[in-house]
Every structure is written in structure tokens, then in C-alpha cells.
Amino acid sequence: MNSPPPGAGPEPAEPGPDPDAVGAPVGRRLVLTMLGLGAAGLVAAPVLQRTMESGLGALADKDPTGLTGLLPNGGGFRYYSVASSVPSKGAADYRLTVDGLVDRPATYTLDALKALPQTRMVRDVQCVTGWRVPETPFEGVRLSALLDAAGVRPGAKAVRFTCFDGTYSESLTLDQARRGDVLVALRMQDGPVSHSHGGPVRLYVAPMYFYKSAKWLSGITVTDSVRPGYWEELGYDVDAWVGRSNGRDDAPTT
């Protein structure tokens, strides 16, 4: 577990995991014991919805034990949902709203987002808990394009992001949101963003720790000040530049 991020105010002795963390280590003997018991003996365990690549997404979505998070993972990713369950959405029912301090509020369907100009970038993904996935492709609409289409009003200073899990939130300053390496991502690893990866649409903030890249994105609200996101309320840095925040010295991802 990383040390408490500096300048973030009061913090618990051990801050909770970020949205993509595996959680606390589990001893080998305990892991083998739990695997031996099987799912029938663990139905009362909390729902963690952890999953990895290599086809384990569907399994983890239905796994109330979180044991799928202990399995080997060739893709390098780890997942954590702060909600007990997250509905799946697709072209028929997905909607992304852009509102707040804008002249032209809008609602986008998945097909409408796909019809906009797409940007592809390949960057390392860095989690604040230490793991890193190199050279990960993301593709989607630049957030700046959606903001320009909405017409940001004078006095706007920040952007708040909400998610259809009903719990998670994030924010960026307006200058950060307008960077060319911030995407409303529709594709990841050269395929559609899966449900377990936060699809069908997630935020991707390339130069910041991965907790800034909110999953299951459903709302973009332009505001007059930065509102700390879910994990930032629990101690993580609001300005989460890789290698320059949260008390870490990781190599930058850009």
C-alpha cells in the first residue's frame, strides 16, 4: 500500500484501494484454503467484482467471492468496483450527458459517439498502487471536442464526471480536461471497452494515475470549481500526475 498522499488532508491509516486495485495481499495458505472450499461456502463474502483480461471478465461479474482477482493475469490489469453491482449497457440504452456551465447541453448515444472523429493513442497505464501495463492502446473522442461542441461558458473552471454505477465520480480542471491526451474512450486494447473495463464508454486520462480514468462514464458536467472524486475524498491526490503525486516517483506515462 502506498504511503498517504501529501497535502490531501485527513486520511485513514491505510487508504482504500483505487478503482483498479487488487486490495490487500492474501497469504498463500489462505488462498489455497479458500479455493478448496469452493463458491458454495463463500456466498456471504462481499461483492468485489474484480476481474482480469484473458476472458475472465464475465466470470468476475458473477463472482461474489472476489477470488477471480487472485488468478494469473496476462494482461496485467486489476479491477475493483466501489459498487456492489454495475448494470451492463450497450447501444440500445447507453447515454452520455454533457451539461452544467455550457450553452448547448447534449446527450450522446453510443452510436453518436462512434460517429465523431476518433483519436488513438498508446501509453503505459500506471496504477497508484504500483502495477503498470505498458503500451496500452486507447481510442475515442477527445474530451475537448465534446466541451467545444457544448460551448463552455465564462466562469467555468472544472469538469466533473459521474458514472452509471451510481457511486463513482472524478474531476479535472478545465485546462486538464482540454488536453489532447484525455479521451472519452470507446476502445481499449484494440477492441470495444468491455463492461469489466468500464465500458461501453470510460474516461482515459493518459498522464495521470489510472483512478482518474473513470469507468462506466455517464455524465460530464462543467462546473465553477473542482470537486474531489470518490477516492480523492478518501485521501488520494486531486492532481494525480504520474510520478509527481500521491508520494510516488513512477516514470511518467507520456
Automatic annotation (TrEMBL):
Biased composition (Pro residues): 1-18
Gene3D superfamilies according to UniProt: Oxidoreductase, molybdopterin-binding domain
Superkingdom as given in the UniProt entry: Bacteria
Limits of the Oxidoreductase molybdopterin-binding domain: 85-231
Transmembrane segments: none
SUPFAM superfamilies according to UniProt: Oxidoreductase molybdopterin-binding domain
Matches recorded under InterPro entries: OxRdtase_Mopterin-bd_dom (IPR000572), OxRdtase_Mopterin-bd_sf (IPR036374), TAT_signal (IPR006311)
Listed name of the protein: Molybdopterin-dependent oxidoreductase
